[in-house]
Amino acid sequence: MRIITLSILVSAALLRAEITDQQRAAIDRGTGAAGTYTAAEDVYRAAFPRSDVPVTVDGRALHPFQGLTSWAAFIPHGHAGHLMVMGDLVLFEDELNPVMSAALDNGLEVTALHNHFFYDSPRVMFMHIGGSGDAGKLAAAVGRALDKVKEIRKASPTPARSFAGPALPAANSISAGPLDSILGVKGQVNAGMYKISIGRPAAMHGRTVGNQMGVNTWAAFAGSDQASVVDGDFAMLESELQGVLRTLRKGGINIVAIHNHMTHEEPQYVFLHYWGKGPAQDLARTLKAAMDTQKNMDTQRK
Fold first, then answer.
1. Residues 175-219: pLDDT tens digits?
2. Domains (ranges, CATH) in the chain?
3. What angle is formed at CA 198 by the lines to CA 197 and CA 203, rounded to 5 degrees?
């Protein structure tokens, strides 16, 4: 029996897909950092401390060791020498959306976006990434996202404190009719502002919940037709997230949070908050294109 058990353990060890030296070298080249290997988990991990911009939390200087370190970890996945990557990028507000676009454009997924602190200065956000494929391509994608950070900080060492875009008028005068036509929904009007809300069905703790319980996609416009701001929230199935992200970013709309609002709902929804500036109809067209990616995914599921 002891011989059989030993044989099983040896066979399991031999079958284990260890990250090769060539893959580790490709990760180092792509990310621009020397990683470390953890044999017990067969994971190769690269870390990138953020020490380029001083950060305080509650008035106290925060060291990178306390959580201001971006990282990307690689593990064997599937066949043909493919790897899976998971990571978390430490980003300032003016870096976040350009870095997100760089990640998406190079084949990575963005899976969450949130804060870790209160009373941090400057504001720090954390963007989680994932993906699978060839080691060199994955690492190069992570490297390009990190290069975008360096590019932004080289151009402006101090993080920006506002979004780019046109100055907005003090009085609101959004025209509802054109937005109704673009979005295909009859919106609400209030003091020159415009808002839509589209519910999605879910079951939670034995009850049906929908639009009025917060399971919805919504958008609110303010400003003028030519210089407007839109903020809102997309309620998405997990399979819809990446398509919505890519469409919003291609249309210049900023993503400000990705997270869940509930637990135990069926199906599970992910919520994405956004902020866009520009002509109202252009923003509406981008939102409608993002909604259409959800419809396309629904058609494929059926």
1. 999 999 999 999 999 999 999 999 999 999 999 999 999 999 999
2. 2-155 (no CATH), 176-301 (3.30.70)
3. 120
